[in-house]
Amino acid sequence: MRRIQITLDDEPAETVDQIVKIVKTTRSAFARKALKDAIAQVNIKMLENRHKKGYGHRPVAKSEFSVWEKELQWGDK
């Protein structure tokens, strides 16, 4: 594990200190989890943008998913 140093404004630093006491963790663990979650959100957004761009170049045909309609079960039958 690598050690890094970050600088926070007073308000978010105080909020983090309050939260870590409540959830019984450390600043480092809290920061690791927050960064991991932020990275995951960025990756999801990038994938969504790639999908959007791909469907922009090659839109879904109206009949593309119709072959599955008879397989769908909505539980009301």
Q: How would you describe this structure to a colleague?
A:
- The protein is mainly alpha-helical and 77 residues long.
- The chain has a domain at 10-59.
- The chain is built from two helices and no strands.
- The longest helix is centred in the middle third of the chain and has 31 residues, at 27-57.
- It is elongated.
Task: List the keywords.
single chain, 77 residues, mainly alpha, 2 helices, 58% helix, elongated
For the terminal residues, how far apart are their CA atoms? 55 Å
Report Rg: 22 Å
Structural class: mainly alpha
Share of residues in strands: under 5%
Q: What about the largest sheet?
A: none
**Chain-averaged pLDDT:** 91
Write down how many β-strands occur, each being a DSSP E stretch of 2 or more residues.
Answer: 0
Shape: elongated
Helix content: 55-70%
Q: Give the ordered list of helices and strands.
A: HH
Poorly predicted parts = none
Q: Count up the helices.
A: 2
